[in-house]
Specification:
The chain contains 6 helices and 8 strands, in the order αβαβββαααββαββ. By secondary structure, the chain is of the alpha/beta class. The chain is globular, with a radius of gyration of 19 Å.
């Protein structure tokens, strides 16, 4: 599901200040293509604006479009890859003046975080490599299971391979609306997300690939 850069440029008015997107994206599980990112970076540079990229599902900054780009801001946190959404702790990566301004406004809105949450966040970051290994350990078997299931039912579903996310986008080929299918799946104890609830005009949905092998 590519980004329509031409549509974004057409919608960007004279007062454009920020374009926001997520990569990898929820619920599709896909990354924004490099060519599209370059076009968006050129657009914000031309308009003296910024590109904000939510990289909550990214493991690190090695592939971040914010590296070496003064007009790109990356935000992420511990919610997804470390499994700590309750801490509400994250970070911003970008030009120094942008990061400093964000920290200042954070102080104005919440003054301070819980000392306990900050201590737990520091502990998780100290063990980040362990968290990443556990993240992959949980996701890999689940993705294999979904891939094998999709391969057995090529006439009914099409799997869009995820690019670094613990969920997969699945397109239905049966003619049934995904909302109806998800309701039937819920009765069987499964919890896929119907595409209709996420703005999709296709019969599609998102399913988690994370599972425990213990």
């Amino acid at each position: 599901m590519p980004v329509d850069v031409a549509a974004v440029a057409a919608a960007a008015g004279e007062n454009l200040r920020l374009i926001a997107l997520s990569s990898p994206c929820s619920p599709t599980g896909l990354r924004v293509e490099e060519e599209e990112l370059r076009a968006l970076v050129a657009l914000v540079a031309e308009r003296d604006a910024y590109l904000l990229v939510d990289e909550e599902y990214a493991i690190g900054l090695s592939r971040s479009p914010a590296v070496g780009q003064g007009r790109v801001i990356s935000v992420s946190g511990l919610s997804r890859t470390c499994g700590l959404p309750g801490l509400r702790t994250g970070w911003v990566y970008g030009a120094p003046q942008v990061a400093e301004a964000c920290a200042e406004r954070k102080f104005f809105t919440s003054i301070t975080d819980s000392v306990l949450c900050e201590a737990l966040a520091c502990s998780a970051l100290d063990r980040h490599e362990d968290c990443v290994r556990e993240y992959h350990r949980l996701c890999a078997p689940g993705l294999g299971l979904v891939e094998r299931w999709a391969a057995r039912h090529p006439d009914a579903v099409r799997l869009v391979p995820p690019q670094g996310t613990p969920f997969a986008w699945i397109q239905l080929r049966t003619g049934e609306f995904s909302l109806a299918l998800c309701r039937r799946a819920l009765e069987a104890g499964l919890l896929p997300a119907p595409g209709e609830t996420m703005g999709s005009t296709q019969a599609s949905g998102s399913a988690s690939t994370a599972t425990s092998t213990r």
